[in-house]
Amino acid sequence: MAVFWGTNYSIVKHAFQEIEPQAFNALRLSVASLTFLAVMIAVRLRARAASTAGGVFYTSATVTTRDRWELAGLGLVGHCCYQYCFMAGLSRTSVANSSLMIGATPVLVALLSALLGIERIGRLHWAGAALSLGGIYLVVGQGVALGSRGPLGDLLMFIAVCCWAIYTIGARPLMTRHSPVGVTGMSMIIGTLMYLPLAWPSLRRVDWGGVSLSTWGWLVYSATFALCVSYTIWYAGIRQLGVARTSIYSNFVPIVAMITAVTVLHEPLGLRKVIGAAAVLAGVALTRLGAQRSVVPPPAAETPSCG
């Protein structure tokens, strides 16, 4: 997941030269939604024929009216609002500011989880999250300056981070009965339908004749791997590991983006970035150690007496 999200920044950079960000995002959301729809239909038909459930791809649980309202809320917050604010914020603030705010997501997720009583967050997890956030600051460089290109961009990016945290935590109850593919696919389809009217002015300005074949290729890649595959992995991880522990792995994204920039764009790699990457890895390791210590082993059964 981190590899797909980290490489996505450099891959779509060329596409933004030919298609406006909001228009590009609307197109990739549409492609991803249609892909999810096709997969859900195919898996459901196969599951009915074989009388089996795939777990990640399919469950036989009935979608209730409450589930539909929750899916609509997830689509609004996690796909429509998040995607729009992220793209609008990224175009109005620096990449360094954006990376640091996205890096704060695990801290916000852990805080909300603790306040809502969803998960118990130990000291090692907090220490690991703080260490990873500090490492991201070293990785993104010295370009972080709130309000450096206008406070609106920073505010929009912060709203996007809040939307993603709410989306991450809000989908967990649905994951207890439904598959990650089903929850992600349905919420994305609903969110895309809400997003398209907002992106319509940008879509109208696109010079379709000037869009190269390579840009269409990057768009399909971004929709398939950065959205469909990565979102499925994200929610499969949440169901298996919990929201706080899964979210900390998103701190690998700036590291992958840095490695991609060094290898593909030939950007310099200094000691500061190496130390920052090491801090991120150490922070994730701390959260894993904290998760292991928080698990209390069940008491051993007493051996029955022979006398």
Distance between the termini: 58 Å
Shape: globular
The biggest beta sheet is recorded as: none
How large is the share of residues in beta strands? under 5%
Regarding quaternary structure, how should these chains be classified?
A: single chain
**Uncertain spans:** 294-307
Residue-averaged pLDDT: 79
The domain count comes to 1
Secondary structure tally, helices: 13
The portion of residues assigned to helices is: over 70%
Tell me the number of strands: 0
Order of helices and strands: HHHHHHHHHHHHH
What is the C-alpha radius of gyration, as a whole number of Å? Answer: 21 Å
Structural class: mainly alpha
Descriptive account of the structure:
By secondary structure, the chain is mostly helical. It has one domain. 74% of the residues lie in helices and 0% in strands. The protein contains 13 helices and no strands. It has helices at residues 2-13, 21-50, 65-90, 95-103, 105-115, 123-140, 151-170, 172-175, 180-204, 213-241, 243-248, 252-263, 271-294. Helix 3 runs antiparallel to helix 7. The longest helix has 30 residues, at 21-50. The chain is globular. The N and C termini lie far apart (58 Å).
Task: Give a brief outline of the structure.
The chain has helices spanning 2-13, 21-50, 65-90, 95-103, 105-115, 123-140, 151-170, 172-175, 180-204, 213-241, 243-248, 252-263, 271-294. With 307 residues, the chain is mainly alpha-helical. It is globular, with a radius of gyration of 21 Å.
